[in-house]
Amino acid sequence: MNLKLTKKPVFQTSVIFVTAIILFSCTPKPATESKLPAEPAKSDYYVAAYIWPSCHHDERFGDNLWPEGTGEWEVIKKGNPRFDGHYQPRQPLWGYEMDNDPQVMERWIDAATDHGVNIFVFDWYWYDGGPFLESALNDGFLKAKNNSKMQFYIMWANHDVKHNYWNVHKYKDDTSILWNAVVDWDNYKIIVDRVIKQYFNQPNYFKIDGCPVFSVFSVPKLLESFGGDAKEARKALDYFRDEVKKAGFPDLHIQWNQGGGSVMSKEAATKFSNRVNEMGFNSVAMYNMGGLAEDYLVYGANSIKIRTQMDSILNIPLFPCVSVGWDDTPRFPAKGIHDVVHYHNTPESFAALLSKAKKYADSHPEQPKLITINAWNEWVEGSYLLPDMQHGYGYLKAVKKVINGEFDIYTDK
Questions:
Q1: Which domain holds residue 334?
Q2: Which is nearest to 31 in space by CA: 12, 17, 16, 15?
Q3: Does residue 409 sit within a domain?
């Protein structure tokens, strides 16, 4: 049964935040009305910012990973300059707040929606038979009094973690695997049940044509979980779809998250496209825009080449991604100037690139105008919209300017 969404057919759908009609479908069968939104939005663009929910004390693994009790702030604060003019440590304008505090999340939600960001995509983890870093979502976002103002969805960040990856100060040179992201069928079924009951049933969970969106970060680890066999992995995804339908939804919208990457060879591109189709994914998104370079303008140009190639080989929607920057030196003592985006990295340059992504969305009326941004709060990777001591609200204002059409007011619409 082919459940993937193609770019070619046009279907009618309703949306969560707006009353405008978007042409799109999550499955080949006729569209089904989505659930009504909690509150209307002011835009027909879905601007989704990724949330890395590491800045709180995790009950399961916090003592083992970040013993100071402040989550990854412990590492972020220890960032040090590697070259002249290197902005480290990063300094948040609002201080070192816990991301699982509902009052903190309320301010985030207000700031986001005031500036055109209307979806949070939460990185979500499952290690050693249980969840990890869920509190930012469960205790922060879902307990925020104003969370009906925006939507959210989950990206299952099913990647391995080495001991020293998230705290090199504690684990030094220990590169052995702390958590292997492979899951067995028993754990997978628990994950499916938990996600449906705990998140999909929330009124502001992001849905496309009534179908909850679920993003998978590491398709290779998903394959490994089911013996490296694409057919077996497809069976697992179809099981997820069936359970979602039993819960009363028309279907599940499964999103392949490509991470970042670079322009692929012809052979690699064909293999990627075939695998997307074989496993029945409904769309492709990216966690960061790919094409990393020291110069943000080159970084952006590279990302557009990646997007153009992926658009040409996929027959399902590709959602554009724009990154604020890149600097993960707090995690890696050996990294230096060549590993950091540090030229022309300004809110105006970001706005120009976001404007290009918006035009891409406009040029694909058969799919929702969904744009992802890396990220809302990736302090440890130097890519965040939250205000800091260097740019203030500059990046948030850039999003608002672009989404409101104020950036390119002289361009033909």
A1: 12-403
A2: 12
A3: no
DSSP alpha helices (H): ranges in 219-345?
Answer: 219-225, 230-246, 266-279, 296-313
**C-alpha triplet 277, 283, 286: angle, nearest 5°:** 115
As a residue count, the chain comes to 413
Nearest Cα to 108, choosing from 61, 140, 155, 64?
140
- How many structural domains are present in the chain? 1
Chain centre to alpha carbon of residue 186: 26
Q: What is the pLDDT along the chain (413 residues), one digit of tens a residue?
A: 334 444 544 333 333 333 333 333 444 333 333 333 444 345 799 999 999 999 999 999 999 999 999 999 999 999 999 999 999 999 999 999 999 999 999 999 999 999 999 999 999 999 999 999 999 999 999 999 999 999 999 999 999 999 999 999 999 999 999 999 999 999 999 999 999 999 999 999 999 999 999 999 999 999 999 999 999 999 999 999 999 999 999 999 999 999 998 999 999 999 999 999 999 999 999 999 999 999 999 999 999 999 999 999 999 999 999 999 999 999 999 999 999 999 999 999 999 999 999 999 999 999 999 999 999 999 999 999 999 999 999 999 999 999 999 998 887 65
Q: Quick check: is 412 in a domain?
A: no
d(CA 231, CA 378): 35
| DSSP-derived pairing of the beta strands 12-13 and 22-23 | antiparallel
Q: Is residue 408 part of a domain?
A: no
